[in-house]
Amino acid sequence: MASSLTMFVGNLVLAEISEHRAVKGDVNRLKKNYERVALMMESAERKVMLDDEVGRYWLKRVKDHMYQVENVVDQWIIKNDKPRGSLRRTISCGDHSGLIKVAAAIKELNVDFESILKLPVETKTNQHAIRSYGKTAPDCNADIIGDYVDSDASDIIELLHSSKKRCRLIAIVGMVGIGKTTLARRIYHRVKVGDGNTHHFEKKLWIRFSIDLSSLIMWSDRRKEGPTKAQLQNLGAEIANKKFLLVVDSIWTENVWEALLEGPLQQGNSESSRVIVITRNKHIAKRIGAGHIHYVKRMNNIDALSLLFRRASISENDEADLKDIGQQIVKKCDGLPLAIRSIGRTLRGHEPTRHDWETVYRTAFQDLSPEEQYMINLSFQNLPSYMRQCFLYCSVFPENFFIEKQYIIQQWISEGFIVEKRKLTMEEVAEYYFDELIGRGLLHLEFGNAGAIGAKMPIMIRSFAKDVSDYENFCNESVSITNLFEVRRLSIVENNEFKDHNDDGNENENGDSGEIIGAEENINDNTANNNHRNNNEARREANTGESVSLHGLRRMKYLRTLVLHKSTIPDGIQVDMFKQLNLLRVLDLREVQGIRALPISIGSLEHLRYLNISETNIRKVPRSIVYLRMLQYLLLRNCSEIQTLPKGIRQLRYLRCLDISGTGIKDINWSFSGMEELISMQGFPIGDNIGSLQSLDLKFPKKLDILRIDGLEEILEPPPENKWPIKKYQLKELELCYINVDPPLVPDDTIDKRRQVLDRFVPHKRLVHLKIQNYYGKQYPSWILTLSNLHGLHLQNCVWCKKLPSLGELPQLKFLAVTGFDNLCSLGMEFRGDLQGKVAFRRLQQLFIGDMKALHTWSDLQSHDLPQLQILRLLGCINLVVIPLILQESTTLMRLEVDTRTKTMIEDKLQGFTKGKVVNMDDTWELQQDRIVIADVAPQNVHPPHQQDEIVEAADQQNAHPSQQDEIVQATVAPQNAQPPQQEIVEAEVAPQNTHPHEQDEVVEERVALQKKMPKIFQLDIINVVLTIFATTILCSILYLLYVLRS
């Protein structure tokens, strides 16, 4: 809300309206009132607690009126059909009727604001929570289960005693409740204090600042508390000329280090002393110059279950009976010790029965304790005001929902949360906010299908966000909404992951039915009892799925966002439904079932900015869409039955993104010249003539950042070499897509022509992301290796290609996906590149190799390659038997994702990975080794960027002589229980070392065939087993009777 209000203050619309005497005074009053209210709102947002009804009511009143301000400005822009700031000529031409309406609205808003300013803004703070949790002592030990805490502590202690300069400042980073302080305590107590020993410190101290930095607590020989300035002087005196260890608990800003700590710490022996800082924000750790960052891992499921049983205080007999439901509860807690302790404390107050535990599972975290609220609220308060609304918006999605990055940033922009900054587009600003929320631990980074980047909101944090925004945001599994018909945002989402947790098979028990709220039509707005009754009915129907009608939405006249992702609407969308939702800004109908057409009334949504009907069976876009003057995002991806768009679409001057990929649109029958803000065109149908790109006649072609071209298989003749088809666009992202065709249908000469065509699509040097899909050639164009700024590359489905370019030579590549290559048998030196001793894949952080049916060998990586790799995905590689040994020794790799098909051949290699790095992606197998558990997505112990650059440069300066290999490895691998680097590259193989390639293939085929046969032995189901035993028993009885009779 704060960012959109800033836009209002600086908006030229009201500035120009104010030039007219009739409204000048009122506009100036409105601006002054806004400035006063905005300052009060900023202060109140930081202080209001969840149980402060007065403060929350005041904030609600303020936000309601701010929304009205936005609507007034929008209506004026829509009426005049002019860009913001271009109204002077229209007003002066005598449009007095519109001016009168605006004047009346502004007068009314002034009255409302002045009434708000008269309200007392009294907030209360939970002092008990501050005393209990704001001042944590180093000797207050929580439950520690599992050896991973001691293992991590040993690694960090080893770094503390290292002589390397980068180990002077170490950061422990992780989200709230993950165990940062627990780990720091273990380190603090294990470190020895004494004289004369190089592994001893002369002094160790633990300090913690108050939230407002006014006071400081210091623990050394005893606990001392006082004003920050005096305490820092005491700290300097304590460590003067000594070798010390200092733990700084919970810093929230880099200013704590720069303005307060750097000076006093210089009084100690800076060369041999060490400092550990604890923070939730990885960006702070980098900004203060931490030489080593340790990311705390989540608990594995085995340790988490043990902690749950311990906190629930149940007997061993009860543990056996409740193990399965306990595992589901642990999975819901997502490896957070704080969440496990919280739910364990709740279970302690219930009987150890399945019924009680299932009830707790279903209702877990609906109500947080005051201490939990306080701990999460610290992170929330520390957010800038413009980022809080983005964070709260994510709570509108269901539990465990995959929030795709592309869509969420577009919806934030459509809601007015994002302000365009100098030299940055709104999309770039929103992307920064998204990454910042992940860095602060408020969102958890996830990867979807086909490399989609997104996030999930941890369950406790989502519960907090729901409580804070329950008067604005409503999800179909919410229960705390006070007035359903006044909500601003509503989501009814079919979430398969959430349904999988429901044991009794009732999909609607938790309200995750994916069906639409319904309510009675005869609602009497003048009767409070009727309104209360209908709220209850709407909530009950949302939670039980009794109604699948959209009629109830008509009563939600304040809605700004409506998300019906994957829902089912059997009776379709009624013609008049949208007429009552005229304030709607975001309409997300992705993968909705049961609708075949959009009603004409969609044109009445004059405030709509975002319309997404991707993956639906909608056949036609109505002409009335041209009346959506404010529309910024129109997404029709994979709507295969849509054959054309209205020509009037060219009138959508504010359109920023048009996605028609996967539709039936073959020709462009409209002009792009009026779309002055277009930065993303996805699914451009190029047809059989490369010159059709000329129809992308943008007024400002350099504004276009993203372009996806479909149907490249239609072009058989390459253009002249001096006419590059996309040269005029300074693209950041480019996708070149062919239709997937069966290999025998394409002759060899056509394949060669297609390669020549692709050679002409040389992008601008600023290109950051590239995707080539269903390419028909046997080799990729050479211009790929000239893209020095390329950060992301996805090569998908190339059936003839038998080798890849030397992608290891790309200097800035951070993300690489290679998927669907049917004939690619090996990844070797040609993939790495001939770098003459330099580092390959020097910036690569994420690598995805998937659906590679023929791939059996991945080799030839050197010990210093992949120095920044964090996530590796090996999926669908059914014949893979050789993987680089350096992957097991990597100190930066924190997550290796494999599926059953891939695991079959390399299971023995996976045993070499430690510290919970291996993740099973389909839950059909489990490694027998206890130390291999589910890992977090946050990178483990990754060197900060400036250190990584130094490592890469140091390695690049080395040559390929074996005598220098040890130095290279030592520069690139952190000393964390790593074995001494080998001078020769050793590959982990299953097949005999000296076998020929065809013999190795035979071994692989025999093993695969054996593995396909073995499961059939065990395919008898329980019924067959029982019948077999029964028949055998009868036969034995008959034989016994015959024997008795004969005798």
From TrEMBL:
Belongs to the disease resistance NB-LRR family. Pfam families: LRR_14 (PF23598), LRR_R13L1-DRL21 (PF25019), NB-ARC (PF00931), Rx_N (PF18052), WHD_DRP (PF23559). It comes from the Eukaryota. Residues 513-533 have a biased composition (Low complexity). InterPro entries: AAA+_ATPase, Apaf_helical, Disease_R_plants, LRR_dom_sf, LRR_R13L1-DRL21, LRR_R13L4/SHOC2-like, NB-ARC, P-loop_NTPase. This is AAA+ ATPase domain-containing protein. GO terms for molecular function: ADP binding. SMART domains: AAA. Residues 166-300 form the AAA+ ATPase domain. Keywords: Coiled coil, Leucine-rich repeat, Membrane, Nucleotide-binding, Plant defense, Repeat, Transmembrane, Transmembrane helix. Residues 498-547 are annotated as: Disordered. The chain crosses the membrane at residues 1022-1045.
